[in-house]
Design a protein that fits this description.
Layout: H1 7-17, E1 20-24, H2 31-41, E2 46-50, E3 60-63, H3 69-76, H4 84-96, E4 104-105, E5 114-117, E6 139-141, E7 145-149, E8 156-159, E9 163-167, E10 170-173, H5 180-190, E11 195-202, H6 205-212, H7 221-229, E12 234-237, E13 244-246, E14 251-257, E15 288-296, E16 301-304, H8 320-330, E17 336-342, E18 350-355, H9 362-372, H10 374-377, E19 382-387, H11 395-405, H12 408-411, E20 412-419, E21 438-445, H13 464-474
Parallel strand pairs: 1-2, 3-16, 4-12, 18-19, 19-21
Antiparallel strand pairs: 2-3, 5-15, 6-9, 7-8, 7-11, 9-10, 10-15, 11-14, 12-13, 14-15, 17-18, 20-21
Helix pairs in contact: 4-8, 6-7
Bound molecules: flavin mononucleotide and manganese (II) ion.
Manganese (II) ion (MN) is lined by residues 157, 159, 180, 215, 221.
């Protein structure tokens, strides 16, 4: 069994890198969430909470696992010195060579060290935090991995969908429409059957990353994790459901989501969402999972990854910008030199693309594709295209380009009614629909106008090379 790459080995690795801090005595009610927001603002170490108020020592919570570029690069198997666009591009190029690595079936694993069954199940034994001030309850699943099986194809999916404690043995699992787990669940329910589910609430960061990245429907997140880890991922068939359980997980719930009607739905949320608001959009949407078994390791660790207001996102770079970069290239846009996003969650409400302009209309074509491509569409609002001399990871440089190169009337367009996320804050509550919402896009061509590129005034700044020479000569 590949025991070397679980959450505990990752903690050991963080210790060696000096990228973890233990905090004892914090309160599950807001303090863990507040400290996690603070450490994310500083892009500081991962936080391991122990001796949590009201809980026995050893029942721990780990937050901000991937909060720095060093930590992220290390689990991606990339040079930990890479930063910004170079790190994003290194990931993009590595991902191109993705080859699924089939799982290995284990007899058992450390996750089965302790079991609670049926009437013994008591989710309050775990220190699920209240993460944000206006949250409607305790969220036990944030950095979680929800395992489902498509009843028609047999395909196993692992997705990160938040879970709120609703009772001793009940949680809600919020799988949004169109998500892979949701599609499997709908097939069971349409046939009048309960949907079997397994949820890992604390596990290795590789599987968590796989479960939260926008992988295609036919990609197995387990096989992706095996590829990332360089060894087959060990799973154990769940005693009740047969669904594959990560053998080295910290805490696993096994049970099912029965079919439901509106009268059976509990209050879910509100919850501080990734755009930075408590957009309460889940009323009448999220069903209950009946938890029949809980398996957990001795001294179990919950993986806590609350969504936080920008720029404190749990990932230090906008990883889905790599997907958009590829999609622009696949759509035939030449000379894309970089893609970046600010205010990113799944994608970016503020996307910036750098190109080397080759023909008239090149920049507008880039913006149009970026605002409609799969990786750019969810939650999108502003798309800015700049020349490749602009550092797109530096908001000051992006604003400078917008402020100086736009010939506004030609450079700014509005595209109406594009698909968006249910948590888009700027949709009027009375206009919200369970059938989904749309949002307009602002396309900003902040490139030097192509038609008179050669006459555009030169930039008043010394070259990087000249300044580097000066630094060396004058020891600045
Ligand atoms: C911390 C965190 C929380 C998330 N919460 C949810 C959620 O509650 N519901 C949801 O549909 N997606 C949520 N997502 C996004 C999904 O994990 C993401 O879309 C993933 O690709 C889903 O897996 P799937 O493509 O197999 O459906 C969350 C992501 C992260 C990182
Ligand atoms: Mn999936």
């Amino acid at each position: 069994m590949n025991e070397t790459q679980d959450l505990r080995s990752f903690l050991g690795h963080l210790q060696l890198m000096g990228e973890i801090r233990t905090i004892e005595g914090a309160d599950w009610n807001l303090e863990i969430g507040g400290l996690t927001e603070l450490i994310s603002e500083k892009r500081g170490p991962a936080l391991l909470f122990d001796r949590i108020k009201d809980y026995p020592p050893g029942f721990r919570v780990l937050t901000s696992p991937l909060g720095t570029q060093t930590r992220l690069a290390s689990i991606l198997g990339l040079d930990t010195k890479l930063r910004g666009l170079e790190l994003l591009n290194a990931w993009r190029l590595k991902f191109r060579d993705f080859k699924p690595v089939p799982v290995t079936i284990s007899e058992g694993g450390p996750v089965f060290e302790n079991t609670m069954a049926d009437s013994e199940v008591d989710l309050s034994r775990f220190p699920a935090p209240i993460w944000h001030e206006l949250d409607g309850g305790r969220y036990i699943g944030t950095g979680c991995c929800v395992v489902t099986k498509d009843p028609e194809t047999g395909h196993i999916n692992v997705g990160t969908y938040r879970c709120q404690v609703q009772g001793k043995s009940q949680i809600t699992v919020k799988m949004d429409k169109g998500k892979h787990g949701r599609m499997a669940q709908e097939k069971y329910h349409q046939a009048g059957r309960a949907c079997p589910v397994v949820i890992s609430l604390g596990g290795d960061p590789w599987l968590f990353l796989a479960a939260s990245l926008p992988l295609s429907l036919d990609t197995s997140e387990y096989e992706f994790t095996g590829w990332l880890q360089g060894a087959p991922f060990p799973v154990v068939p769940g005693p009740m459901t047969g669904l594959p359980i990560p053998a080295t997980a910290e805490i696993v719930l096994e049970g099912e989501i029965p079919p439901y009607g509106p009268e059976k739905l509990p209050q879910e949320g509100p919850f501080g969402e990734w755009p930075g608001y408590y957009t309460n959009t889940t009323v009448g949407e999220v069903p209950i999972m009946e938890v029949a078994r809980v398996y957990y390791r001795n001294d179990p660790i919950l993986l806590g990854v609350p969504t936080l207001k920008s720029p404190n996102q749990h990932l230090p770079i906008p990883m889905s910008a790599a997907n958009l970069w590829d999609q622009l290239e696949k759509a035939g846009i030449p000379e894309v030199k970089g893609v970046w996003g600010f205010v990113y969650g799944s994608t970016g409400p503020f996307t910036v693309v750098a190109i080397k302009q080759r023909y008239a209309g090149h920049a507008k074509q880039t913006a149009l594709v970026a605002c409609g491509a799969k990786a750019g569409v969810v939650g999108g609002k502003f798309v800015v295209v700049v020349d490749d001399d602009v550092d797109i990871t530096d908001l000051q440089d992006v604003i400078w380009a917008m402020a100086t190169r736009c010939n506004v009337r030609e450079a700014v367009d509005i595209v109406k009614g594009v698909w968006t996320t249910p948590v888009e804050p700027a949709v009027r509550p009375s206009s919200r629909s369970l059938r989904g919402n749309v949002m307009d896009r602002v396309l900003i061509d902040a490139c030097r106008p192509y038609q008179w590129l050669d006459e555009f005034p030169p930039v008043n700044a010394f070259s990087k090379e000249y300044k580097r020479g000066l630094e060396e000569k004058w020891k600045l």
